[in-house]
Design a protein that fits this description.
alpha+beta, 4-stranded antiparallel sheet, 4 helices, 4 strands
Length: 101
């Protein structure tokens, strides 16, 4: 399993987004959580983008899943940084997520 830190950048201010698009974005995130792909996500402060911790078998698999992200598909947001990392230390409560095969 590979682990990734993603930084999203809003291309259109969040407050200008259609509520239906925000709902679609949140459904996408929930799907990622339900499938065990995402550990955490949230907006940056100030809200110029957001962060996401994700896992996948490969960068290609991650990119394939992220291609369905509604904000990205509508060109309202982009992932400006995707960094693969090795979680050599973490809180014990996260062991099941980071030690998954």
């Amino acid at each position: 399993m590979k682990y990734f830190f993603l930084e999203g950048e809003h291309l259109v201010p969040f407050e200008q987004r259609d509520p239906d698009m925000i709902a679609a974005h949140r459904r996408f995130l929930q799907k990622g959580y339900d499938e065990g792909r995402f550990l955490l996500s949230g907006p940056s402060i100030p809200p110029t983008g957001g962060v996401l911790i994700a896992r996948a078998q490969s960068r290609e698999q991650l990119d394939e899943f992220l291609a369905e992200e509604p904000f990205c598909r509508a060109k309202l947001m982009r992932f400006c940084r995707v960094i693969e990392f090795d979680p050599v230390q973490h809180q014990p409560v996260l062991a099941a997520w980071f030690d998954a095969i």
